[in-house]
Give the backbone structure.
Amino acid sequence: MPNCRQCGARLSKFDEDICPVCGLKHPFDDAVSADTVEFTQTIGTLEGEIPSFKSRKVAAKLAFFASFLGLDLYYLHFYIAFAINVIYLILIGVLLPTLLTIFFGTYYVFFITLGVSMIGHIAYGVYLLVAKDYKDGRGEFLR
């Protein structure tokens, strides 16, 4: 059943000429038929931006192959964790090898630290594939 366009009262199909509540002539004149008025009023519109669902497979591939850059964290909208990962990359990737080379003449500790970091990110990628109810940084479930 359609609604009156002025007062919003529920109308039957027999009230096409005048609204029995407010007296408006042709209360659903702007619609094609009474059925389309009812259908379009029940659907509603999307507010804000359209949600975009993130894929768990893409996030896991980023964690496996680009984990040292933190692209998996950026893809899942964990921006603070991404920023921490970039700072960590600068410290471990630039400063630590430089200091180890200057003081000890070797930088094998750098490879050990980088390897532990990579293992952590790969474990995170496996968790992304296994977890059923994982949410991204915006609180939306991964598909």
